[in-house]
Amino acid sequence: MAKGAETRDAILRRAVSLASVVGLEGLTIGGLANEMGLSKSGLIAHFGTKETLQLSILQAAAQMFASRVVVPARREPAGEARVRALFDRWLEWPASQDLPGGCPFVTATIEFDDRPGVLRFFVNKVQKEWVDVVQQAAREAKDSGEFVPELDVAQFAFNMFAIFQAFHSYASLMNDRTAEGRARASFEGLVRRAKGEYQPVTPEAERAENPSTAGARRTDDSEAAAAS
């Protein structure tokens, strides 16, 4: 690899790490240049414009995600094992040592979701491709008979995506140490439903989920007992 290419790769590795903390908009050319021991002009010469630099950072992050999450998970047998591998590696991805701020795409989604342009287009493309990967894995589990025939794979992917988003908020914003455990418990429930292993909701869980109706339910139960 030529020296110029090596320098560019080193810049992008450091930029992805920094962007996971401050976001792409918070990452300045001057700050990144200082991190790399380069002048501003020396750094920008590798990319041309700040937008090109930002796009290159997103592309580098996407390659990292694919190599650490998608490719290893696809080595697992098609079916439930692959679905579980995708979730496990996805959950581990934000904890990578070179991503001190967590998943850079969570931040990028917030930054560019309402800003048309090439950066939003790329973030949207990456997210949709990931959803397609999850849907395909769920579909394979469905076709193999491990998941029920009536499973809506799009809804499965949506729910898995929602679990990760909640995990990120609980872990990063609220610093909740139970975040990973809750995420894994939610995923287990998702897989069990996909397999048709429905579990009845206990009265205690019902009261916890909807305390406003608990009193009415107890009153109804008492009246029914008195009438009998």
Main features:
single chain; 228 residues; mainly alpha; Tetracycline Repressor, domain 2; 11 helices
Total helix count? 11
At CATH level 3, the topology of the domain at 62-212 is Tetracycline Repressor, domain 2
Query: What CATH architecture of the domain at 62-212 do you see?
Result: Orthogonal Bundle
Shape: elongated
The biggest beta sheet is recorded as:
none
Structural class: mainly alpha
Structure, described:
This protein is mostly helical and 228 residues long. The chain has a domain at 62-212: Tetracycline Repressor, domain 2 (Orthogonal Bundle). Helices cover 75% and strands 0% of the residues. The protein contains 11 helices and no strands. Helix 1 (3-26) crosses helix 4. The protein is elongated. It starts with a helix and ends with a helix. The relative contact order is 0.08.
